[in-house]
Write the structure tokens for this entry.
Amino acid sequence: MKNEPVAVENISVEKTLNYMDAPVLHYRIDYPQFRHPEYQKQLDGINAWYREMAEDLQGKYETELYRNASELYEDSRTGDFPFHMHDAIFTYVITYNQNGVISLYHDEYIYSGGAHGITVRQSETWNIKDGCRIYLYQFSGDPSAFRAEILGAIREQIALQTETGEGMYFENYPELISEHFNPESFYLTPEGLTLYYQQYDIAPYAAGMPEFRIRL
């Protein structure tokens, strides 16, 4: 029973906000709540962490984003240009759920006019036996050597992608992958580690969010 996967319940909060009877902002927040017969006490703390995150997001959307959308709508009325309703979507993906470990990433997509929206990714990996997060450098006894090993693997993968015409990166990507490397930007899969970079960090928007798989 202790090794069985954690049950995941999805909670959704969705709302459309109006200004002067016109819809100016739509948002949806999806976040997980976890259940396990052996580790519920530890999971209650993790559940509270995600619940508080969702509440903070909801507060941001209904104040900051709503204010920006309302002001732009007002400008569009007085300036006689079209207004596009703003959108905020927060979703998550469970990437690993076994052996007492949960790993997931969540993407926050915000569209506030213009050609396209922007997505920002975050991720967490949890040890459900103690309710604590697992950090990247815990997978190695030598953090400096591990970082160098990861960056080397990323350079090799980019070089191979470039050779085969599959990759699209800025010319100075060798410097950028080190400059923008974030040890919190990873998640686990059954195949190992996946490291990722945000949009525009090392590649143009059209390349999406670059990901690199590292075997442990």
Summary: The longest helix spans residues 40-79.
